[in-house]
């Protein structure tokens, strides 16, 4: 048996867990840990410029790979700066392990320098948290933290470590547990077969079905099964914001994203359906619109690993608790073995109706009434230049919705955005986290001049570690989504939604040693973007000036049904 | 509807705060809460009384189950059960009031556990409704202080809540 200090145990346990990169920022309470980190090569540490960025990088790594990302921050302000990133991951069910320093045990509760009750502050936004009481607990806690973060409905886990637990002179026997056994935590491994049979009968008998697939399909690695079910039955598929890429966006059976800014055909198909096959979704308020008017003729099958998601907002007719992959495999078995067949005649006429909707409002925007570049055009160009194959890491606002609508994702784990919490400042560090782990892939950060400034200090981190992401900044000189709501609901009183004194982003990028480009006309866009992506080793900041008056459409009318939408500034359903 | 939830959870620091935090965070209401270790010191048992629609209580139960520290949750009100609460209640007691308090306490099978020349303190055990009834039966003008433990509950017969 080897004797190790708490700090050494922590680093060794992370190694034994297979962690290759961690993102963090040192400080007083974690100095022992940073010293242990210094004396090894296996784990690379990325020094960010603000702890929030460290958590978003770890989060994006998890979104792209399915494995828990790791962030390391100090106590007090280090820990509180990490909270936004932890909450972001929590809302989107992203596995993450956040290690926070704490003041030494004997000072806890004395309002010591850089002391904050991290377990308390983080409680509502973590899946679970641990406070280390003895150094020898560290390997077991690390093992459990990863297990909890990655299994069931994933989420962030905080490990709070008082400084004396990592004291280099206090050494204990190290052993990393091979398995985890917890009597109080046993995620469901399989769906209820009776419920699945019942659901199958409904599914196969449907005349106007829709498959409504969310982030759970991606996190649960159930995309193949979902595609096979959809293809076998020839049913339409809509994806949530979090589920984009879970079903190929360019496939004929995809009706696109649903919800507040969903496609016309997706929302119409949902509203008129007689059966909703919901997988890995949570009937979020940005999807359902007015609950009392939600899909009045539909029966609902709801599959989710988390029972609290089922019948929380919309009552499920057939609830199925279980991992999406295993449950969908059970459905596939039934589909293949059963004598029952879908009603092809009914499905044919259902498709006829859907295609009619699609033809009426198939992702169009006006380009002729102004000389200004439309943000949608920029996203379409991005899709073209990167062959629809890039990792697109988005910030929050209009550009996020345009990216979701106009970039056609054919693969899962490529669309990386803060869907639930809507964290501005997420996109850039997220792109960095992805690029570091997928150095050969095209990684774009789609952002706006508002969002990018919430974590712009990370341009410095990118210089230090040479992280050549491409920043696609849709610059409309205003907080576009806020402005849109002010146009719609506040008679265009643009209260604090404009951005004065914007920096010269080109010079700013150059100041950090990167490449800056300013693009003001559509004619220059393709060439500039192609050049940017051709510079494999350079971070390129593309400051793209777009129409400030553009709104995101369709937009559901508040408290209406799924089908009540504004289609442009002058049209509605 | 009033529900009595019994929760078995790991007797770990912070576990109780997760349960309590869940209620405030999700806008659920707690009417009473009792907690103590069980015969197995690694486990605590919490009894929570809450009111809400069936849908809400279903959500509360699911959310409690989701907490990593929680081992089991049972809604006692779904079956036959016994509930008990203990109350200590102090009255101004002089002259004729002293006899009146004694008489009423006897009827409710309460005990007078502290006496001074001017006060009586009554201990009463029973369902929450019985304790409410006692308070209503007495003259509130003389009431000085009430302290109630909150409800403890257990299922009747063979049904148990254990690991």
Number of separate structural domains of chain B: 2
CATH-derived architecture of the largest domain in chain A: 3-Layer(aba) Sandwich
CATH C-level of the largest domain in chain B: Alpha Beta
What is the CA-atom radius of gyration of chain B, in angstroms?
18 Å
Number of helices of chain A: 20
Principal-axis shape of chain A = globular
Structural class of chain B: alpha+beta
CATH-derived topology of the largest domain in chain B: Alpha-Beta Plaits
Low-confidence parts of chain A:
none
Please report the distance between the alpha carbons of the first and last residues of chain B: 28 Å
The CATH homologous superfamily of the largest domain in chain A is termed: Thiamin diphosphate (ThDP)-binding fold, Pyr/PP domains
The helix count of chain B comes to 4
Which spans of chain B of ≥5 residues are poorly predicted at pLDDT below 50?
none
Count of individual domains of chain A: 3
The shape of chain B, in one word, is: elongated
CATH architecture of the largest domain in chain B: 2-Layer Sandwich
Give the number of DSSP strands of chain A.
Answer: 22
Quaternary state of the chains: heterodimer
Beta strand % of chain A: 15-25%
- Mean of residue pLDDT values of chain A: 96
Describe this structure in words.
The complex is a heterodimer of chains A (573) and B (163). Helix content of chain A is 36%, strand content 17%. Chain A is an alpha/beta fold and 573 residues long. In chain A, the strands form five sheets. Chain A has a six-stranded parallel β-sheet with strand order 3-2-4-5-7-6, sandwiched between helices. Chain A has a six-stranded parallel β-sheet with strand order 11-10-9-12-13-14, with helices on both faces. Chain A has a six-stranded parallel β-sheet with strand order 16-15-17-18-20-19, sandwiched between helices. The longest helix of chain A has 17 residues, at 344-360. Chain A is globular and about 75 Å long. The mean pLDDT of chain A is 96. Chain B is of the alpha+beta class and 163 residues long. The model of chain B has no long low-confidence stretch (mean pLDDT 95). The longest helix of chain B is centred in the middle third of the chain and has 13 residues, at 54-66. In chain B, 25% of the residues are buried. The A-B interface holds A 119-120, 123-124, 127-129, 131, 148, 182-185, 306-308, 311-312 and B 9-10, 13-14, 17-18, 21, 25, 55, 58-59, 62-63, 65-66, 68-71, 163.
């Amino acid at each position: 048996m080897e004797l190790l200090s708490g700090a050494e145990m922590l680093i060794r346990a992370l190694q034994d867990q297979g962690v290759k990169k961690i993102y963090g920022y040192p400080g007083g309470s974690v100095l022992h840990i940073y010293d242990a980190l210094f004396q090894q090569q296996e784990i690379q540490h990325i020094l960010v410029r603000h702890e929030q960025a460290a958590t978003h990088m770890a989060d994006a790594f998890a979104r792209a790979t399915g494995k828990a990302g790791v962030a390391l921050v100090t106590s007090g302000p280090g820990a509180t700066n990490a909270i936004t990133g932890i909450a972001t991951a929590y809302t989107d069910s992203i596995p993450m392990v956040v290690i926070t320093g704490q003041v030494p045990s004997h000072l806890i509760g004395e309002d010591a320098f850089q002391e904050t009750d991290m377990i308390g502050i983080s409680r509502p936004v973590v899946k679970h948290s641990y406070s280390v009481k003895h150094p020898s607990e560290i390997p077991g806690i690390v093992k459990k933290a990863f297990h909890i973060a990655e299994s069931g409905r994933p989420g962030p886990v905080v490990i709070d470590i008082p400084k004396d637990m990592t004291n280099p002179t206090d050494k204990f026997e190290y052993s990393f547990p091979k398995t985890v056994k917890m009597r109080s935590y046993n995620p469901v491994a399989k769906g209820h077969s009776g419920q699945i049979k019942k659901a199958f009968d409904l599914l196969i008998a449907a005349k106007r079905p829709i498959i409504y697939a969310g982030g759970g399909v991606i996190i649960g690695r159930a995309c193949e099964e979902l595609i096979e079910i959809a293809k076998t039955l020839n049913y339409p598929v809509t994806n949530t914001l979090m589920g984009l890429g879970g079903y190929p966006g360019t496939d004929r059976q995809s009706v696109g994203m649903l919800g507040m800014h969903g496609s016309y055909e997706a929302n119409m198909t949902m509203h008129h359906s007689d059966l909703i096959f919901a997988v890995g979704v949570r009937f979020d308020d940005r999807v359902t619109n007015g609950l009392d008017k939600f899909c009045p003729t539909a029966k609902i099958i709801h599959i989710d690993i988390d029972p609290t998601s089922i019948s929380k907002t919309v009552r499920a007719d057939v609830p199925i608790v279980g991992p999406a992959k295993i449950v969908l495999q059970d459905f596939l078995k039934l589909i293949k073995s059963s004598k029952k067949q879908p009603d092809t005649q009914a499905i044919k006429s259902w498709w006829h109706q859907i295609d009619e909707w699609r033809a009426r409002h198939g992702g169009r925007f006006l380009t002729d009434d102004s000389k200004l570049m439309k943000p949608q055009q920029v996203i379409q160009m991005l899709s073209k230049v990167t062959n629809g194959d890039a990792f697109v890491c988005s910030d929050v606002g209009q550009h996020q919705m345009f990216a979701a609508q106009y970039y056609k994702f054919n693969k899962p784990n490529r669309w990386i955005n803060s869907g639930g919490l809507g964290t501005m400042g997420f996109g850039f560090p997220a792109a960095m986290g992805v690029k570091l782990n997928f150095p050969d892939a095209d990684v774009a950060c789609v952002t706006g001049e508002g969002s990018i400034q919430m974590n712009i200090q990370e341009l410095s981190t990118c210089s230090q570690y040479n992280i050549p992401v491409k920043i696609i900044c849709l610059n409309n000189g205003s907080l576009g989504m806020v402005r849109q709501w002010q146009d719609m609901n506040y008679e265009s009183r643009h209260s604090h939604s404009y951005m004065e004194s914007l920096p010269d982003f080109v010079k700013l990028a150059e100041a950090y040693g990167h490449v800056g480009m300013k693009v003001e006309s559509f004619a220059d866009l393709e060439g500039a973007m192609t050049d940017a992506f051709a510079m494999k080793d350079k971070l390129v900041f593309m400051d793209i000036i777009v129409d400030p008056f553009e709104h995101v459409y369709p937009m559901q009318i508040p408290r209406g049904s799924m089908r009540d939408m504004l289609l442009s500034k002058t049209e509605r359903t | 509807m009033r529900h009595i939830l019994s929760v078995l959870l790991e007797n770990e620091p912070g576990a109780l705060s997760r349960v309590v935090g869940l209620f405030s965070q999700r806008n659920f209401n707690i009417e009473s809460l009792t907690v103590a270790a069980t015969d197995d010191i690694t486990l605590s048992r919490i009894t929570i009384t809450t009111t809400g629609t069936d849908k809400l209580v279903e959500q509360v139960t699911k959310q409690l189950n989701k907490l990593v520290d929680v081992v089991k949750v049972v809604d006692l009100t779904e079956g036959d059960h016994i509930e008990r609460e203990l109350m200590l209640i102090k009255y101004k007691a002089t002259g004729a009031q002293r006899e009146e308090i004694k008489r009423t306490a006897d009827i409710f099978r309460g005990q007078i556990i502290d006496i001074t020349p001017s006060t009586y303190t009554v201990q009463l055990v029973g369902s929450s409704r019985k304790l409410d009834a006692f308070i209503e039966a007495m003259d509130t003008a003389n009431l000085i202080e009430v302290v109630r433990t909150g409800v403890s509950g257990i299922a009747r017969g063979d049904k148990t809540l254990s690991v």
